[in-house]
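From the shared-data thread, chain only:
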Amino acid sequence: MTIYLIRRILLFVPTLIIISWVAFGISVSAPGDPVENMLNASDGGSTINIANKQALIAKKRHELGLDLPLFYFNITSVADGKQGAASWENYVPAIHFYGTQNQYHRWLSHIVLHGDFGTSYNTQLPVMDAIRAKLPLSFSLTLLSVILAFGISIPLGMYAARYRERFFDKASAVVLFMLYSIPNFFMGTLLLVFFANPQFLKWFPESGMQDALNFDDTWPLWIKIQHWAPYLVLPLVAYTYSSVAFISRQMKAGAVEVFGQEFIKAARAKGLSENAILWKHVFRNALMPIITVFAQVFPAAIAGSVIVETIFALPGMGREIYQALLNHDYPVIVGVFTIFGFFTLLGYLVSDILYAIADPRISYSKS
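Structure, as C-alpha cells:
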C-alpha cells in the first residue's frame, strides 16, 4: 500500500504539468489583450496618443514576457516567411526551437524555484497572495459540502434500499430527481428570491459573508464563525443539493445489490435485526461505488464554486476565476487551474486510500 501511494504521488508531477499545459493553452488562446485592459483600467478612460499607447503596450509586454514565444518549440511550414517559396514547401514542416526563452518556461521555472505563479495583470499583486486569501473560503465550503452530501446521502440511500418500492423510496426518488434536474445557478437564484428577500422570507443575508459595519477582525475565531454562518447557509445548500441527489441514488443501488446476496440471507436466518443487517453487513459492502463517486464529487464541488460564489458574491476562488477570465488575467487563470488540478488528483488519491480501508481484501502490492 505504501509503495502504491508513493507511486501515485510521484505521478502527480507529470499530471500537474499536463494540466498546466492545458490551462496555459486555454488562457493564451482567449480573445483580448491583457496589456490593453491593464492600460485602459489604469488611465481611467482618458485619451492617450496612439503612438504613446503602442509604445506603452510594447514596453509592458516586454516587462511581462509576453513578447516571448509561447512554448519551447513551434511547428510551421518551410515556406513560412520565405519569399518566392514553392507551393510544395507549404506542406513541409519546420520545427523552431526557442530553448528556455519562452512564456511557459518562464512561468514554470518561477513556480518550481520560488513557488511563484507570477503577478496578476489586473491587480499587479502576486498570484499566490490572491490564492492564499481566497482559497481557505472555497476549500472550507467545498469540504463542508462534501461532508454534508455524504452525511445526508448515505443514510438516505440505505433506508431507501431497506424500504425499496415503498412510500419512502418512491417519495425520496421523486424529490431527489427533481433536485438533480435543477441547475445550480437556478437553484442559487431561487434560494435568494425565497429566503433572502423581504417580500418572501428574509431569513438569511443575500450576499457576501460578513457585515462590513458590525464585523470586527479582532473577534475570537468562534465569534467570527457565528457571524459568518448565516451568510454561508444558502451557498452551502446550493453547493450540496445536487450531490445529495446523485450520491443517495448510488448508495441505494449499491445497497440493493448487497441485500440480494447470500450472506445477508444467512444473517437473517441467524435472527439478526434489520438495523444490524443494514449497518453492520450491508453498509460496509455497499461503500465501494460511493468511494468511486467521492473522486468525482470533490472536484465537481470546486468547479461549481465559480457559479455559486458569483451568485452569492463570496470572495472565494470561484469568483476569482470569473474575474480573471473577464480581465484576461492569464497568470491567475493558469495558477488557479493548476491548484484545482492538484485538488482533483488529491480526491482520487483519497479514494484509493478509502478503498483499502473499506475492503482490506484489495491488494496494491503489485500495482
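The chain has a mean pLDDT of 78.
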